[in-house]
Structures are given as C-alpha cells and as structure tokens.
Amino acid sequence: MVEQFIHDWGYVAVALGAFAEGETVLLGAGYAAHRGLLDFGWVVAIACACASAGDQVFYWIGRQWGRRLIERVPRLAAQFPRVGRLLQRYPHWAIVGVRFLYGLRIAGPITIGAANVSPLRFFVFNVIGAMLWAPMIAGLGWLFGQALTSLSGRLQHVEAGLLLLVALIAAIWMFARRRAARRAALRDSASGGDCRS
C-alpha cells in the first residue's frame, strides 16, 4: 500500500517539496530510490528543476514586493541583514549557499531579490546551487538506505547466531535432562532390584 503510493506519487512529492523547503521529502525520496521505488536520476533531476523554479519565484517576489514584505514580516526583517552581509562578502556564492542554510530556503531568495541582485546573476548561481543541493540531499537519503540495509544484514547474521546459540543451549539442556532422567531411572531400577533380592 505505502510502496504503491510512493511509486504513484513520489515524483509529485519531490517536485512540490523541492519547490519550497524540501530537504525532508528529498531525503525520503533518496531512500525510496535505494529501495527501488523511485529512480535516483529522476529524483535528482526533478528536485533540481523544481528547487531552481521555486527559488526563482521567491526571488521575483523579493524583487517586486521585498521591501514591503521585509517591513511587514519579522522573520524576513531578521534575515535581511544576514543575507546582505553574505552578499557583500561572497557576491556569487552567497546565492548558492543560502539554499544550504537553515531557515533561508525561502527567506534567502526573497531577501536577495529585495537586495536588487541582477536577475541573470541570480539565475546562474541559483541553478548551480540546485545542481549541488539535489544530488547531495538525495544522496544522503540513498546512503541512509544503504546503511540501514547493511545494518539489517548484520542484524540478520546476529539474529541467526543468537538463534543458533539458543538452539544449542536448548539441545544441551534437553540432552542433560534426558541423561539425568536415565540415571535416575537406572538408580531407581537398581534400588528396586536390591530390595527384591
């Protein structure tokens, strides 16, 4: 049921998640790709395209209404100086980097747009950022799946070893009980024979 849902709607979830703050969805999609429910290449391509498109939308919102939004939304007002400092120190790589900074996935492009960064510069470095971000986050999900599979395999070996140990202890215990019962029976028969003689 869940696997069918992921198979049917997984790529849509990746697209919607990547458009906004999609790390969790993309991690899950990377894990699903490891399980064979989604194709890793498609997950990365969709995430890259939709993350770029989402940031472009937020950038243009910032270009059009950024100053008014900054005045009205305290969260944006708090992030604006931080993004401004990043843009001054690293004019190009700040555009790439905001994608990786917690809390700046949506606020970053809006404040960059409000800071009047040129559309071409934003577009180029936004795409570069998405091309780095998508395979990295999906890859972490894939690696998590691989680690879980490896751990599960090891646990299966441990579980098999434990079962073997329990079976061995049970066999020894049963053998010891039978031997003790035989000895007791021999003692009883010997003492009974002594009484009759």
Plain-language structure description:
- The protein has 197 residues and is mostly helical.
- The chain has one domain (2-151).
- It is 86% helix and 0% strand.
- It has helices at 2-19, 23-34, 40-72, 74-89, 93-97, 107-114, 119-196.
- Helix 2 crosses helix 7 (119-196) and helix 3 (40-72) packs across helix 4.
- It is elongated and about 105 Å long.
Features:
197 residues; mainly alpha; 7 helices
Low-confidence stretches: none
Give the tally of structural domains.
Answer: 1
Structural class: mainly alpha
Shape: elongated
What sequence of helices (H) and strands (E) makes up the elements?
Answer: HHHHHHH
> How many beta-strand elements?
0
Strand content: under 5%
Can you count the helices? 7
Termini distance? 77 Å
| Chain-averaged pLDDT | 84
Gist of the model:
With 197 residues, this protein is an all-alpha fold.
